[in-house]
């Protein structure tokens, strides 16, 4: 029987890519979206159902989880993300979901770690204690976040801004995360495993700027900004203060070189090398 896989956060940076790649497999993909309108562009993908999900509404969760075999558990970065994750795991238990793939974050297992890592570790525990077979994926920062948060300033000014100094980061392409999700969902070899996912190299943001410049044929510069300036910019864009402070802590970890580790996990699971930043820059050059 064709299995049904629910992907929560399906319109997000990683969720959308997971839905797209799973749609090419012989499964039914149920894309959980906060707004049906935002999910409209996924309707044309083969084997994809769109379902509206309110993480805080048990009624909408019950409908979304009906006849679901496997769950890709993605929650947004928000002040009530722990409650959201708990609600999703509880509904998965009630409805007899038989496998959960949890998208966590690199560093979630570190002690004492940073606040973002501690939040993710707490959500991992909900999954581990559910009694449902699971795999936890801990990806590094996403290359595509440069498109989401910096493409406008790169287009307008040829610059992007972060308070990370010369720290190197092993960013990963979301297409490689989705490829790993696909592999672990369609095999039973990964139950109970925790995988740390990175790109093939750790680069400084200056080096990334140079690669973006090569891809676009224009001068692109990275500007290291003071933490206070970055904080004020996030607050100005209505980022809740606890979230803004947690993101700043992540940037400080980048600056200190604590996110430079590189793993071979993408290669080991998919049989393919993860995409380099150079490849990402070439593929997304029109965004910059």
Q: Which class of secondary structure composition applies to the elements?
A: alpha/beta
Count of DSSP H/I helices = 11
Can you tell me the CATH superfamily of the largest domain?
A: NAD(P)-binding Rossmann-like Domain
CATH classification class of the largest domain: Alpha Beta
Distance from N terminus to C terminus (CA atoms, Å) equals 44 Å
Principal-axis shape: globular
Q: Looking at CATH, which topology of the largest domain would you report?
A: Rossmann fold
Largest sheet: 7 strands, parallel
Provide the low-confidence segments as ranges.
none
Helix content: 40-55%
Number of extended strands: 9
CATH architecture designation of the largest domain: 3-Layer(aba) Sandwich
Number of individual domains = 2
| Radius of gyration using CA atoms only | 19 Å
Strand content: 5-15%
- In spatial order, strands of the major sheet run 3-2-1-4-5-6-8
Average of per-residue pLDDT values: 95
- The helix/strand order is EHEEHEHEHEHEHEHEHHHH
Sum up the structure in keywords.
7-stranded parallel sheet; 288 residues; Rossmann fold; UDP-galactose 4-epimerase, domain 1; 42% helix; single chain; globular; alpha/beta; 2 domains; two-stranded parallel ribbon
Topology:
Blueprint: E1 4-7, H1 13-22, E2 28-33, E3 48-52, H2 58-65, E4 70-73, H3 81-94, E5 99-103, H4 115-128, E6 134-139, H5 145-157, E7 159-162, H6 174-185, E8 193-197, H7 205-216, E9 221-224, H8 227-236, H9 241-255, H10 265-270, H11 277-283
Parallel strand pairs: 1-2, 1-4, 2-3, 4-5, 5-6, 6-8, 7-9
Helix pairs in contact: 1-6, 2-3, 3-4, 7-11, 8-9
């Amino acid at each position: 029987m064709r299995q049904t896989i629910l992907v929560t956060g399906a319109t997000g940076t990683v969720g959308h890519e997971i839905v797209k790649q799973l749609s090419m497999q012989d499964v039914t993909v149920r894309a959980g979206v906060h707004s049906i309108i935002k999910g409209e562009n996924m309707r044309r993908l083969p084997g994809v159902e769109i379902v509206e999900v309110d993480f805080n509404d048990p009624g909408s969760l019950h409908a979304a989880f009906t006849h679901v075999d496997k769950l890709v558990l993605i929650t947004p970065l928000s002040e009530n993300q722990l409650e959201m994750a708990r609600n999703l795991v509880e509904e998965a238990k009630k409805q007899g979901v038989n496998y959960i793939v949890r998208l966590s974050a690199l560093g979630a297992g570190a002690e004492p770690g940073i606040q973002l890592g501690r939040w993710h570790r707490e959500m991992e525990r909900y999954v581990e204690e559910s009694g449902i077979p699971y795999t936890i994926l801990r990806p590094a920062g996403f290359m595509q976040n440069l498109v989401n948060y910096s493409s406008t300033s790169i287009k307008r000014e040829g610059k992007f801004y972060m308070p990370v100094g010369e720290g190197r980061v092993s960013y990963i392409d979301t297409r490689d995360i989705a490829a790993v999700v696909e592999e672990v969902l369609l095999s039973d070899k990964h139950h109970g495993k925790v995988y740390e996912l990175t790109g093939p190299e750790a680069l400084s943001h200056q080096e990334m700027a140079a690669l973006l410049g090569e891809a676009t044929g224009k001068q692109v510069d990275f500007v290291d900004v003071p933490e206070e300036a970055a904080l004020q910019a996030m607050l100005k864009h209505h980022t809740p203060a606890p979230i803004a402070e947690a993101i700043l802590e992540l940037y400080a970890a980048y600056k200190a070189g604590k996110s430079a580790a590189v793993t071979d996990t993408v290669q080991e699971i998919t049989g393919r090398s993860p995409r380099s930043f150079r490849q990402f820059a070439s593929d997304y050059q029109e965004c910059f």
